[in-house]
Amino acid sequence: MRVAVHGTDCDGIISAALILVKYPDAEIVFVNNPKDASKLEGFFDMVVDLPKPINCKVNIDHHESNYKNLVKEGRLTEDDVVSPSAPAAAKLVAEYLKLKGGVIDELVSMAVAADTGKHTEATLALDRVIKFLHSDDAGRRRLAEVLARKGAAFTGDEWFREQYEKLAGELRVIDNVLNEVVNSLSDVEGKFYLVNEVDVTPYYLAKDIAYKLLSKGCDTVALVYRDVDTGSLRASIRVHERSSTDAREIAESLGGGGHRKAAGIPLSKPQRIIELLDRLAETSPNHTVTYLNLKPYFEGKGEDERNT
Predict the structure, then answer these.
(1) In this structure, are residues 261 and 241 in contact, taking their beta carbons and an 8 Å threshold?
(2) Hey, CA dihedral for 213, 64, 254, 33, is it positive or negative?
(3) 3-state DSSP call for residue 257?
(4) Edge-to-edge strand list for the sheet holding 2-6
(5) Quick check: 294 and 200 in contact, CB under 8 A?
(6) What is the pLDDT of residue 300?
(7) How far apart are CA 116 and CA 240, in angstroms?
(8) What pLDDT does residue 305 have?
(9) CA nearest 184: which of 304, 307, 308?
(10) Predicted local distance difference test score (pLDDT) of residue 306
């Protein structure tokens, strides 16, 4: 059994864990950038939470862009399980493998929470470790094995705690600063934010400011950060669970993709940031976006916030 999964988020790693429950000896290839799925070499029995490559028997995914492309190209087969209405690829994997109950249900619930913008402290911890291990395939394999054995109890695993401790010191410092940032902002409710955190926060903590703003009632947060693999700029859009804003729609209009509550955009051209700002302003009810630069906070220079 040879499988490829999205290797940098909870849904992909949890999907790998589910596969290991059924096939403990499965070979798992972790793909960081979904666009690289087309470059996969050799045959794959399953490709999960990724676009379908040519050399694949079963594609299990829930991205609408993948579904549309497969239909358009005539490559969606009866073997594939591609359902844009599914809240997480892991849910489709569990159903496909006929797995349920106990640890399985716990894993699926975690994947759904993470992929629908309803992170818990446990799934945030998992997400941070996944991103911390972004270039460590052996580490990601072991993490998937821990999840397969322990389900929601993974936070009590000694090896997992060791990995988390490696980033805990930096996390505490950054978390304190981010809390100060959010607490210094007034009238966050319903606002749209464009946050510049380029070369400020590490990759595995890049989304933390978004979750903090959303917890305060912010409608939509777009984060600009540097991709750890390519060194190029990317944007990540996160939307409040009660908001009608469609992150995927914004992202796809700028060459990215994702889901309604979470999506990403490669900022390969400088004008993409301006285009993103324009799209956010068009979507915002009062056509206003608040720009927040995190760098001055970390340099001790105070607040750098203005409306556009």
Answers:
(1) yes
(2) positive
(3) strand
(4) 27-31, 2-6, 44-48, 56-61, 81-82
(5) yes
(6) 62
(7) 10
(8) 47
(9) 304
(10) 43
> Using CB atoms within 10 A of its CB, is residue 58 exposed (0-12), middle (13-18) or buried (19+)?
middle
Per-residue confidence band for 303, with pLDDT thresholds at 50, 70 and 90:
very low
92-109: buried (b, 16+ CB within 10 Å) or exposed (e) per residue?
bbbebbebeeebbebbbb
pLDDT band of 56, cuts 50, 70, 90: very high
Nearest 10 degrees: Cα torsion 81, 207, 27, 144:
-100
Q: Which residue has the tokens 């087309």?
A: 38
State the Cα angle at 242 between 236 and 243, rounded to 5°: 55
pLDDT over 80 at 271, yes or no: yes
Q: Is the pLDDT of residue 57 over 90?
A: yes
Q: pLDDT of 77-93, one tens digit each?
A: 999 999 999 999 999 99
* All structural domains of the chain: 2-156 (3.90.1640), 185-307 (3.10.310.30)
Nearest-angstrom CA–CA distance, 122 and 114 = 10
* Distance between CA atoms of residues 51 and 302, nearest Å: 43
